[in-house]
Write a sequence for this structure.
C-alpha cells in the first residue's frame, strides 16, 4: 500500500489507474480556509468530470465514505484521522456565450475567477457574488448569496452525478429547492455537482441593487420601494470586493481574520410573533431605542429574518472575542469564527458553543451553524 493512502489496495490501485486523477495525502488543515482538520484516508484530486464520476463510483461501490471538496471554505472538520476520502474537484473549464449570456462552469472552477471572467466579458448577474471563496460547483449547494443576490437568481441547470445510480444528467435548478443558504444537496450528499449553467445579462448592467450599504458605496441614494436600479457590473464588482475586504470576507492567506468559513451562523428565520418577542427581550435588556433598531426583515409566509451578527454583538460578543487564544471572532466581523494560526477543531467548537449559548440565553434564539461539520457537533454530548 502506498504511503499516501490508507485505502484498501485494490481500490487505490483502481483509482490510481484512472486518467486525470492524482492521489496524495493532503490534510484538511491544508484543504480548508479554516485551516483545521486531520488527515483523510486519501486525498483524490480529479481534473475532469469523467474522473470525478469514476472515482465516486469506485468509492461508493467499495462502500468507502467520501467527502466532495471544492475550495474547503464551508467546512469544519475534526482533527486526527478522518475516516473518509477527500475527493477534490479540480475540473475547471468555463464556457461563455457572449451572444446569449449563457455561462457553463465545471464544478472545480474557482468561483471568483468565474465572476471575474463574466464581468470582464460584460455579462451581468453575479457581480454581487464577487469575492465568495470556493468553487463554482458548491454555489448551488447552499445557494450562495451576498449583497442582495444569490445564485438561485441566475442558475438555470446543474449537471449532477446521482450517488445512488451513478448516472449523470443535467437537471433544472428548480429541482434543487434552493432557499436561503439551503438546497436539497446540502448535508445530504445525494449527488455531486459536476457543472453549473447560468443565464446572465448581456447589457453590461448588474442585477438589481437591493442592498443599501452597496448602493451607498456606489454613490446611489438608497433604492426606494419597487425601484429597480442596475449599475455597470465592473463598478459593482469593485465595490463589493472593497466592502468584503473591509469585513475580512475575501480569503487572504496572510490575514487570519479570513481563516474562517465566512458567516459561521445563518440568520435565524422565525415566526413574526417570535421576532416581536425577541424585540421585546432586546427592549428589556438594552432599551427601546436599541429594540427599534433591531434588524428584522420579512421572509415570506409570516416569517421574519433576524441578523445573527447583530444578535451576537448585542449579546456581548465583540469583534475579536475573546481577544486571545487560538480561535476567536474575526476582528473585522462578529459573524466569522477564525483560526488565529494554530486552532484545533475543538477550539472552534468551544467558541461556537460559547456564542450559541450566549445568544440563546440573552435573546432566546438558537443560532444554526452555516458550514458543514464532519466528525463534530455543536450540540453538547449528552450527560450519562
Ligand atoms: C472568507 C469567507 C467568506 C464567505 N462569504 C460567503 C458569502 O458571502 N456567501 C455565502 O453564501 N458563502 C460564503 N462563504 C462560504 C463558502 O465560501 C461558500 O459556501 C462556498 O460556496 C463553498 O464552496 P467550496 O467549494 O469551498 O465548498 P467546500 O467547503 O469545499 O464544501 C462545502 C460543502 O459543499 C459540498 N460540495 C462542494 N462542492 C460540491 C459539489 N461540486 N457537489 C456536491 N457537493 C459539493 C461539500 O461536500 C461540503 O459539504 C464564505 C467563506 C469564507 C471563508
Amino acid at each position: 500500500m502506498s504511503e499516501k493512502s490508507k485505502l484498501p489496495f485494490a481500490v487505490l490501485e483502481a483509482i490510481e489507474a484512472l486518467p486525470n486523477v492524482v492521489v496524495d495525502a493532503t490534510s484538511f488543515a491544508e484543504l480548508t480556509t479554516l485551516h483545521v482538520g486531520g488527515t483523510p484516508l486519501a486525498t483524490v484530486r480529479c481534473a475532469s468530470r469523467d474522473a470525478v464520476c469514476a472515482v465516486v463510483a469506485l468509492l461508493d461501490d467499495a462502500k468507502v465514505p467520501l467527502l466532495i471538496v471544492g475550495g474547503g471554505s464551508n467546512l469544519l472538520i475534526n482533527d486526527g484521522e478522518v475516516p473518509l476520502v477527500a475527493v477534490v474537484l479540480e475540473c475547471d473549464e468555463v464556457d461563455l456565450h457572449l451572444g446569449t449570456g449563457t455561462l457553463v462552469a465545471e464544478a472545480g472552477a474557482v468561483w471568483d475567477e468565474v465572476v471575474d471572467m463574466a464581468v470582464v466579458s460584460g455579462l451581468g448577474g453575479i457581480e454581487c457574488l464577487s469575492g465568495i471563496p470556493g468553487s463554482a460547483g458548491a454555489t448551488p449547494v447552499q445557494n450562495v448569496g451576498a449583497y442582495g443576490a444569490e445564485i438561485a437568481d441566475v442558475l438555470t441547470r446543474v449537471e449532477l452525478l446521482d450517488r445512488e445510480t451513478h448516472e449523470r444528467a443535467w437537471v433544472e435548478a428548480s429541482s434543487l429547492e434552493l432557499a436561503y443558504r439551503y438546497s436539497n444537496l446540502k448535508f445530504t450528499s445525494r449527488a455531486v455537482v459536476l457543472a453549473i449553467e447560468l443565464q446572465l445579462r448581456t447589457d453590461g448592467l448588474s442585477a438589481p441593487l437591493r442592498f443599501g450599504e452597496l448602493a451607498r458605496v456606489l454613490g446611489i441614494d438608497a433604492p426606494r420601494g419597487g425601484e429597480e436600479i442596475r449599475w455597470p457590473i465592473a463598478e459593482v464588482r469593485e465595490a463589493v470586493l472593497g466592502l468584503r475586504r473591509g469585513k475580512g470576507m475575501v480569503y487572504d492567506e496572510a490575514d487570519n481574520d479570513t481563516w474562517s468559513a465566512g458567516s459561521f451562523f445563518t440568520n435565524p428565520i422565525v415566526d413574526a410573533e417570535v421576532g416581536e418577542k425577541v424585540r421585546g427581550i432586546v427592549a428589556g435588556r438594552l432599551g427601546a431605542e436599541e429594540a427599534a433598531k433591531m434588524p428584522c426583515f420579512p421572509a415570506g409566509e409570516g416569517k421574519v429574518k433576524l441578523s445573527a451578527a447583530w444578535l451576537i454583538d448585542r449579546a456581548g460578543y465583540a469583534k475579536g472575542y475573546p481577544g486571545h487564544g487560538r480561535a476567536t471572532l474575526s476582528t473585522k466581523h462578529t459573524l466569522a469564527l477564525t483560526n488565529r494560526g494554530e486552532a484545533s477543531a475543538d477550539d472552534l467548537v468551544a467558541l461556537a458553543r460559547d456564542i450559541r449559548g450566549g445568544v440563546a440565553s440573552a435573546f432566546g434564539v438558537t443560532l444554526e451553524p452555516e458550514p458543514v461539520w464532519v466528525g463534530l457537533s455543536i450540540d453538547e454530548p449528552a450527560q450519562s
User: Anything to note?
Assistant: The pocket of flavin-adenine dinucleotide is lined by residues 33, 67-75, 89, 107, 132-135, 137-139, 141-142, 144-146, 185, 192-193, 249, 251, 258, 260-262, 372 (CB under 6 Å). The first helix runs from residue 9 to 16. The first strand starts at residue 21 and ends at 24.
